[in-house]
Design brief:
single chain, about 130 residues, mainly beta, globular
Amino acid sequence: QVQLVESGGGLVQAGGSLRLSCATSGRTFSSYTMGWFRQAPGKEREFVAAITWTGASTNYADSVKGRFTISRDNVNNTAYLQMNSLKPEDTAVYYCAATVRRYVMSTQLSSSRNYDYWGQGTQVTVSS
């Protein structure tokens, strides 16, 4: 069983930055496709970013392109989401997700249904 634990959320002013971390259990982290999703109050969960198991390819939602960066550290079994130039509309609970399936297509990476394991979420609040 894979366990994911997010951290790094908090309250930040618009224009500020946060770095989310997703610590993952298990010895096969390097084989996982990793993704970040978010859910704002009253809205459906939406895709934010994903990274392939090799780290060679990344995919982003249009709303965060140029501001957010997803990365992974296969030595420390951790995925990251660096969030810059934050906006009030980025306010949401952010979830880390993982799957052992090796997706490469953006349509696959961006679908929450393709991920098998989820963290508990971390709150990000951006004030105006």
